[in-house]
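Quick one before lunch.
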Amino acid sequence: MSNESNNQSNSSTPDLSNFWMPFTANRQYKAAPRLFKAAKGMYYTSSDDRQVLDATAGLWCVNAGHGRTEIVEAVSKQLATMDFAPTFQMGHPLAFEAASKVAELMPTGLDRIFFTNSGSESVDTALKIALAYHRARGEGQRTHFIGRERGYHGVGFGGISVGGIGGNRKTFSGNLLPHVDHLPHTYNHAETAFTRGQPNWGAHLADDLERIVALHDPSTIAAVIVEPLAGSTGVLVPPKGYLQKLREICTKHGILLVFDEVITGFGRLGKATASEYFGVTPDLLTMAKAINNASVPMGAVAAGRHVHDAVVNAAPENAIEFFHGYTYSAHPAAAAAAIATLDLYKRDNLFERANGLAATFENAVHELRTSHHVKDIRNLGLVAGIELESRPGAPGARAYEAFVKCFERGLLVRYTGDILAFSPPLIIDEAQIDQIFSTVRDVLKDVA
Ligand code: PXG
Ligand code: PLP
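Model of the PXG complex:
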């Protein structure tokens, strides 16, 4: 019932009262809503019929651009053919085909694919796989997880426990997973401000893993989880050599390494995965978002064959090996969308395209170095962050104002704290890259 609505509806603004919006200042938003009603290619259409250039690929997810006919047709056809089929003790061909296509893009050896419906579910699934793996091998005492400060791993209890964003944890702090520790984050303004690409400074921060491992005893640690490039927390690019060191330390102590590639997967850095980009292979890799161009909710975990086989082979014959799964794991519409999307990435060489545009994107964003309020600029692949000086006593207010002003001038950006983040669809062209950063430059002149 919406009779308690305190919004006057008109033809373009629906009643806003019932939808409790995620990660949104609900009262502020509902007082001055921003609505999209259509999307095609690089642009959204706002409810007042303006074209808005999408510099965020939705929420880092629409990598092939909006409204791709091939995906729309694949999903429509699948819904008309078979809307749903269970994957618990049943199956349908597209589930297996989608898994094969995802596996083809994963680092060598990570070819066993568990489907979920979101990045948060992928993270919780990966943590559970890690526990199951150690238990299957007779090392059930390995129950500790190590995440990292400023990490974002979604909003499940597992994800916020290994995550390192205070605001996402504080309300729930009495009920987080036990036995979790955190590496320090890798950002250091004094050492790395305005670095283009990966900083030279900071590989030594991986040595903290040795310290934490020694503190808890290596034999108690199940997994280390990090975003290879931290997106959500404001684009933190890993220092050169850092991920390689984490890999070495994990291997030395029998600890599984999980890369959370919910943002970096599927071409964001110009390769299929960040793992491929950095040349470091984890044991488990979580993904979501661009796996099917965000057209139908879907996520997945790619497990190394050693991990999968240890779990599966430890169970008695004819027994369920892993007590985990979602009603919608490999939903037919999501699977159809994934197959069409992965075909499209390949046909249009979109990862190579992103790779080819990365230098232009880097040059364009770093031209804002001298703009008003700019404190730092960070970038890699088709990701960039512009950190603004915070207004005294009002963190986030300046970036929010910039975000609103960009929207008013036909540009969708993302902001987090006082950092503006950019992650456009991989179909972007050079003129649109210019449009993004010239709009931001104009807006920054205008922001108090
Ligand atoms: N892991 C990582 C690394 C993510 O970036 C998740 C897990 C959770 O995925 P779901 O599908 O449950 O939201 C994410 C999601 C932003 C932003 O603007 C980032 C995300 C989601 C929404 C906004 O930074 N990342
Ligand atoms: N809650 C109840 C009562 C359920 O029956 C189920 C699934 O059957 C769930 C939660 C989990 O839902 P999902 O499988 O979509 O994650």
